## 1
Amino acid sequence: MTRNTFTDIDLNEARRLQAVADTVLVDVRETWEFEEFNEGGINIPLAEIRERRVDLAPFKSIIVICTNGVRSKVAAMDYCRVPEWLDKQIFHVKGGIIESE
């Protein structure tokens, strides 16, 4: 079975890529964390990533982020397993949001 792979990027690269058309930043932290502080994009808590895949279908590139890179890596690996998404680019912000502080 062919499987997609994700690319580790840093926060500055994520900010740059976010400006590219057909790219979405997905913050997989809890809603309260997203409301407290975020890098933009959309908030899909990790527990909801499978039910909300439809929200990401229109995009060619998906950037996944969380606080420190742990939850976002789980989400990135999950997104890589979606058979219909082999043509999508999946990016993972290694080190998460706190990497930048």
## 2
Amino acid sequence: MKLLESGSPAAAAALLERAAQAEPNSRSIREALARAQFNSRRYAEAADSFRIIVDANPVEDYAYFGLGMSLWRTGDIEGAYEPLAIAAAMRPDLQHYVSALRQVRAMLRARRA
């Protein structure tokens, strides 16, 4: 976590990948790994890690948000919509969730127009 917080997400991801192999059911390790992957611009891998969290515990709003943001960054705008909508529905008080959903909706409308 110190590596992630100090701006070394790639190094954090390398260590957290080993930790996730050793403790595959640890949500906190998986979330830290997903964050490190996202911050390392390894968006497809981050999406996979966030998806594992969502599948294991579908009440994790942050995992839905991370999944949606990761998919968005891979260019899968349509795939990003649902997890962002779920995150925003679960936590409408978090402006960054709502803002991300609005942006994805706008992009989808623009594509359809």
## 3
Amino acid sequence: MIYALLYIMVGFLAMEVSGWFIHKYLMHGILWKIHKTHHQHSKGYFELNDVFSLIFGGIAITLIFLGLENFDYRFWMGMGISIYGMSYFFLHDVLIHRRLKFFGKPKNRFLSAIFKAHQAHHASRFKDGSVSFGLFFVPFKYFKKKRDE
């Protein structure tokens, strides 16, 4: 059981670290033509940038299937990536971007910091000039309360 939990955490953390790197250097680099759809307002429900979720989901499903027979590390890492993906969907798509309108602005300190960091990321609609590329690793400055809040 501890073995499984360890690999779930490794899969989850690997997504946050690799996601930060991919977001900063690839999505805001050579893959900007795809990712820029996320930085622009659109009338449709889906955007070209959603292809990245399909890629990451495909990796998770592949690992789960490869490790399914023996429930080895691949299975549990795939589960960690899947849990990250579900967390990302609820935090990023539902809570922050309100693609599904279930919640209002977050009141929880950590969720509020994630929200502020993502707002700062979207302050620029261009390839360069964005900050805060992760989802869960939030710079400390976003935890500070403004005087008018």
## 4
Amino acid sequence: MKRTLNTLIILVLAIGLFNATSTEFDKYDTKVAVIKFKTEVIDYGTIEQHSDGTRTFTFTNEGDAPLLITKVKTSCGCTVPSYSKAPIMPGDSGELEIKYDTKRIGAFTKTVTVTSNAEGGNKILKIKGNIIASK
């Protein structure tokens, strides 16, 4: 009988604590950054060997918290990213510059993985095109 009474008291206290905790979470507003790219695929089309391989991905922070890009990783060493390390404030835009080495002939498709504090985790972008021999 004493054991049942102790178990019942512990159960009532536990339920009371869980109810108090859940109302505490409702008091805080959670702000998140949301990264929205103008396009997620850049098509170089058909270009000549040794031509300019620089292209730009434009994005906007559509969230309500500052956006911070922490890392940009490419699928090979032939693609070099360049981006701002400064936070992008809500409503502001930024650019991610990609330079592809155009000395290789033939079709290519490469990925660029953007790691940030944005909602949804990593964002995967693509570049593609075809390089022909220069005349």
